[in-house]
Amino acid sequence: MSVSTALSLPTRRVAPAPLAGKGVAAALLIIAAWGGLLAWLLAGYQPNWHAPGPYLLMLLQTHLYTGLFITAHDAMHGVVSPNKRLNNALGTAATVLFAYNWFPNQLPKHHDHHRHVGTQADPDFHPEDHPGFLPWLARFAWNYVTWWQVLLMAVTYNVLKLYFPQANVIAFWMIPAVLATLQLFFFGTYLPHRGEHEPDNRHKSRSQLRHHAWAFATCYFFGYHYEHHDQPYLPWWRLWKTKA
User: Fold this and answer.
1) Is 164 left (phi over 0), alpha (psi -120 to 50) or beta?
2) Could you tell me which of 188, 186, 176 has the C-alpha nearest to residue 73?
């Protein structure tokens, strides 16, 4: 994937606009699509593992898992709903459905990332003497994955396999969560923030080249990462407008 420094790309300022229920609708659509597809894949789908269908559905479920976290991320910036209780409730629901993450714990860490991006105070930062993908991923997981998440995932897995085919549980509930985590890290943290940044790049972030279909497929437009740091008040479904 081509990634270029954001400062060399045309960036459009997009004014804030009333959410008018669109953020809530987007959040509910993603949560409902994730839950509905998962229910069918576990209870009603008989996969033919020799055909491409199950693997394409696994990728679709991965994309919806990614959407859960992007919904939670929007809630961290208060752009799901102007009603703070509803905004945080939807953010909490989205994080819990995504492998039992916990919104109240992740909220301050994400704002620390924005305030201290690319410094030792940034929880997403990785020291320059160990810049590789795997060491950075390990540190990222250490900062965000908790023992009780692992415990709850293990308990849920053992309960689900009592009622649904074990292969379906692994392929459509477990593997997509892992793939979405890697997808979010790769496109939302590693590619935008790795390496050196120009001195005048105040967000220490890069942005993928303008390609809206690819940007949506990979990370709900968060490959436009400099633009997100520059205009964090934009929900994911308006972020594409920053690309001139």
Assistant:
1) beta
2) 188
